[in-house]
Amino acid sequence: MTDNFPHFNAELYSPDFESAVQMLAYAVENYPERTAIIYEGDQISYREYGNCVAGMAAELAKFDLPGERVVMLNPNSITSAVAAYAIWAAGGQIAQLNPLYTEREINPLVEEIKPKIILCGSEFKARLLPAVKKSGASDLLILDEGSLNLTHWRDGADVSLPTPFPNGDDPALFLFTGGTTGVPKGAMHNHTSLLMTGRLLQASWRVETGQEIFMNVAPQSHSWGMCSSILMPVLTCNTVVTLPKFHPQLVLDELVHHNVTVFAGGPAAIYNAILTLPDLVSADLSQLHLCFGGGSIFNNETVNNWRQVTGNSIYVAYGMSEMAPIAMHRTGQEPKVGTVGLPVYRSEVQVVDLENSDRILPDGENGEFRIKGPNMLSTYWNRPEETANTVRDGWIYTGDIGHFDEDGMVVIADRKKDMAIVGGYNVFPREIDEILYAHPAILEAAALGMPDKYRGEVIHAFAALRPGAEANEEEIIEYCRQNLAKYKVPEKINIIDALPKTPANKIDKQQLRQIALKHD
């Protein structure tokens, strides 16, 4: 399916920009006194934002960053946002690490990237020192201290952003893939790719310029956090309320206090956690009109409960570190639950046979999605073989299995690597997940294929129950028998307090796999 995007009025689009820095310069010039970022009781205007970026960029320019990589480790904050644009303004490429990463996870990433310098909050200095020595970085700079303290520029005279701005083809960002298996790969994106990501989201979701208040809860190190806290608000000259980490009650309080209009949300776990709050029903969310989701299954119950309590639909997007968005629900159309919407404008999405990628499959038949578009990665950093395996003849082979439905909507069945073969039958654990999520007692669930000497693989599932709900393994297995073919029914169901999550708030199936192996 190709270019089936309804062409919206051109006034909905921001002007064309060559780079993210030029995009910021436009917002500073046209909306200088509009609040850009709100964070923990502090806030910064676009004029101050531009001054701080210009000042920090001048400091970073001392390290001759054009073409160089800069590692950053810091939670969401005003300083982190300023540092991202300052690195770009100084000509560097950002490789931002998740603050939840341990020293063991950090070291191989930094060694592989070989950054020119490293920026971090003071609390991360000890965690990064071993990586500094091994990677050969020339310096470790502490954000909000010494020459990088934002107070130097916030209240001073206006400072112009350095020129020339980066070009569209200049490398801008590393987005690390997954992290649940092996060492994450660094998907490299240039400025054009970043800007197209924001532009496609803006067009599909009709975000108004200079009139919205975003809320972001995803880490800035994640593709969605980068987009919803750094790119989209600046592209649309809007305000963003950003939080250091996800906490359901804090999110609700801030949604109400700041009259948030656009909730960036994320995986279904985010929405499910907020839905458990007793005071959600009485909260004044009358200003909220756009809620976005992605990165997980959104079942009917989550979507319907959210709509019933808040009056808002959840618009789901499908993307990956290599290219985002790929497909999404669009405002103006009621989201179709069970799908991730239509392919975005200027993208190409095809479903191909798992054994023969030259064979394009008809609607309704499951195969692997392959994609191409103006927002795709340029390469994996230092991984030529993996780049060649993933990007073939200009197409990204996603490893996601699914199909187009009768309305042209993208339906994700599962990850190719997660598919289990039970007694010779192909089983997609995600289908079982959806059945489990429909059980009234289950809050979250995950199924996975596990080795079995008789059938090759069998299905093991994990479930966490809703507060106050009761159910046991036998009852849930019987429920599965009523809703699934015999070979798809889980052999075991482990009921646990909560399912482990990755730093991106997705269910961590690798950790569940280790738990399952211990129980066998």
By DSSP, the count of extended strands is 26
Q: Over all CA atoms, what is the radius of gyration?
A: 23 Å
Tally of separate helices: 15
CATH architectural grouping of the largest domain? 3-Layer(aba) Sandwich
Main beta-sheet strand count, sense and barrel state: 9 strands, mixed
Question: What does the model show?
Answer:
This protein has 520 residues and is an alpha/beta fold. It folds into two domains: 20-156 and 168-402, Rossmann fold (3-Layer(aba) Sandwich); 419-519, ANL, C-terminal domain (GMP Synthetase, Chain A, domain 3). The strands form five sheets. The protein has a nine-stranded mixed sheet with strand order 2-1-10-9-11-12-13-14-15, sandwiched between helices. Strands 6-5-3-4-7-8-18 form a seven-stranded mixed sheet, sandwiched between helices. Strands 16, 17, 19, 20 and 21 form a five-stranded antiparallel sheet that branches. The chain is globular, with a radius of gyration of 23 Å. It starts with 19 loop residues before the first helix and ends with a helix. Mean pLDDT is 91; it is low at 1-12.
